Each structure stands twice: as C-alpha cells, then as structure tokens.
Protein 1
Amino acid sequence: MRISDDRYSRERLRMELALRFLGHEARTQTIRAWTGLSDDRIRKLYRSYLSQARRVLPRHRGKSPHQVSYFTRSQQLQHESTVLASMLTLLGVLPPRPPAELPGLARGELLCAAFEAYRALVPGAQISFEHAVFLTAALSRGDQLRLEGCPGCGSLMVTERFPARGRRCHLCAGATHTH
Ligand SMILES: [Zn+2]
C-alpha cells in the first residue's frame, strides 16, 4: 500500500498550521474550522506541543469573541484594529469577493502571518488571535465592520457599519470638537 505524497504533505500542512494556531492560543473550535483536524487530533497535538514547549498555554474556555464594538471601544483598540485590518488586507487574508469560504489552510497561514506582523508593529498589542479571527470574519462579511478611509483626512480606520458616533478618525473628531 502506498500513501500518496499529496495526502501526506496536506496532512503535514494541517499539523503545522494547527501548531501555529496553538502558539497563538487559538481555541480548539477555531483550529478545527481552519485545519479540518478532529478535536481528538488537536488535543493530542496540544499535549505534545506542551511537552515540547515546556510551558503552560492559557486555554480559552468561555464564549468566542462576538462583539464588533470591541474594535472601536477605545482609541488604542481603534488604532490596533486598523493596523491588523491593514495587514489582513495587504496579505490577502480577506477574500476579494465575499462571501467566500473563509477558513482554509492557505488562508490560515496568511492569517497567522498578518497577526504576527500586527504583533511586531504594535508594541504591547492587545488584540488576541481569537479576536483577529473574529475581525477577519466580520470584515469579510462587511455587514458590521468595514475598513475605510476617514471622510475628513482619508486615513484608514475600522468602523462599525452603523456607528453610534460619527465615522471620522479620532484626529478629525478632535478637530471638530475644538472648533
Ligand atoms: Zn480623519
């Protein structure tokens, strides 16, 4: 019996992506959705990852992120969301014509690369990987969040589709207040 090389390398890619997701403290359900691995495989992988890494990774038990308002909650988060969304766009994580099937191996690798670039660009970054996955889904649907230019100055920002406040960036909003 001969195992096809294709199938073997695809399995290896799944495992590699799952390990990368684990390193970013992703939830089991997220890893399952993006890699197609079973929960059982993910648990085994997690255990062997722990014994190799010799450290305890916090596992997220509660609900997955679900509030789009998180990304515009503060000036800092607004800034970070914009950097992250820009990376997601630049690296092609967001599909050009939604709704496309989002989770997948190739896009998962790009998602990790975008998240890692964001972490490198923002010291003390607050947005978790799970929130990055949530942001990716929301931006690709485009029904609740968008990455768009501020009408005042054109700088990019993540906005809520139906914002409670005006859609200007904090600099333009500040300028309006002082006038
Ligand atoms: Zn502006």
Note: Helices lie at 5-23, 28-35, 39-53, 75-90, 105-121, 129-141, 170-178.
Protein 2
Amino acid sequence: MKISQFNISNFKVDGGAMFGVVPKTMWGKVYPSDENNLIPLSLKSLVVEANGRVVLIDNGIGSKQDAKFMSHVYAFGGEGLLPGLAARGYRPEDVTDVILTHLHFDHCGGGIFRDSHGKFQLTFPNALYHVSAAQWEWATHPNSREDDSFLPENILPMKELGALHLIESEGELIPGLSLRIFNGHTRGQLIPLISYRGKTLVFCADLFPFTAQIPLPWIMSYDVEPLKTLQEKEQFLNEALRGNYILLYEHDYFADCSRLQLTAKGIRATEGFSFQQLLKELNE
Ligand SMILES: [Zn+2]
C-alpha cells in the first residue's frame, strides 16, 4: 500500500463557528484568528493506492463556484487538486475510487467540473464515487440549516453521470481500508480507517477537524446533532487511544497528524506533526 497526502487549498471561516460553545478566550489560545475573527483551514486529501486501486478521499471546493461565492471562503495557497495529484504521480483517469466523507461543499466540490460547453463532467472519469446512503438522502433533501453547504451542482451530477455508489453500512471498501459511519456533524459521515504498516490511520474529516477539537465539548456550531457528536467522539477517542491510532486532519492548518495521549484532563492530541514525518517514521 502507498499513501500520499496533499493540501488542495486553504480557506477561512469564522472562528466562533468552528468552536461552538467554547469562548474565544479559550480557543484563541490554541488556534489563531485574524482581525475579522477568521481562522485558516486546510483542505487535505489522502490518496491510498492498494490492490490495483487508487482511492482519493475528499477533493476540496472545486472550480465551479463564482467569484461571489469564493469571496466568502477566502481561498488561498495549496497545491490545487489535479496538480497535487500529478505531483504524486496520478492522472485523473488513474483514480478508481473517490470516497466522499460527506457532501458539504468543501469536501466534494472537486469531483465535478463544468466543461467548455457548460456541462457537468466527472473530474475522475473512471472512478466510482462513494457516499453513504444516509448522507445522500440527507443532502438531497436538505434541512435549511445545512442547505448552504449542499450545492446541487456538486451532488446531482454524480448520479446523473453514473458514478455514484451508495455505501449502506460500515465495513471494508478494499483490503486495508474500511469505512465507519458517524452522524453528529451531518447524517452519514464516512470516516476512513487505513491499516498501514501495522498502524491504524484515521482520516478525521469533520469528526475532528483540528487537533484542538479532541477535547469532548469542543464541537463545531455546524454540527446538526452536537450531543450525538459528543457521544461519538467519546466512544471513538477511547477506541483510538487503546489502538494507538494516528489521526490525519483534513482541516488543521497547523498539523497534518497527531497521536492521542491520556492526560489528567482526559484524552488529548499529542503535538501535531507533518505527514512527511509520519511516513518517515512508519517506513523506517
Ligand atoms: Zn462538514
């Protein structure tokens, strides 16, 4: 198995929205914000190559949104989706599977592009696009609180173009890569667990966007069922601590990965480290 991670781009959101009921006097100490209270987030994808499959996990905002939309997300930096893949040796047609943890615009927008005739096309023409059945149902009948995050142009073409594969239950997608389902952030979020060199790596998506969100009550305002998130975090963190899992953060601007440690205050992230460091350590 070969794994690669790259940052598609960064963007900014309101810091308070990312930390829910935690006051700024607390989150401000661990995650810096600018003069408008905005904090930087990354959009990091993971590529897993194994058993003749090339699996891409999440794919950023994409290029379909207009200037007005983009002016609200303050995108900056990053390698870009296709250049990032190319730098790791993959063409769009090499990708066999796209896992979408969920259908919020910052996780799935790169999977569909608008061609020169204005038609929607698959960015990865040979890939199956995996989404949980629960998330598909949830996103195609959106509640008004999440409506702005589910953009039809990111979602409906997957089905119309015949690429959609619905995941009904938890389990292995390919040997060494299994999918878990969580419901607090949004219904049916898929969290990939990867077995690599004897370790379990977790693609945390919006279950744990940053190392700073490991403490139980540090939950995004965006979550549709925060008490469910609380329960899911507690259960999963205990499992992850016992199993010495390594957490990969899609959104953490400052850290690619961390482990977990038990402190007097409960389970916390260790100091963050880069994906390169992780590979170096695991491949030694
Ligand atoms: Zn989300």
Note: The mean pLDDT is 97.
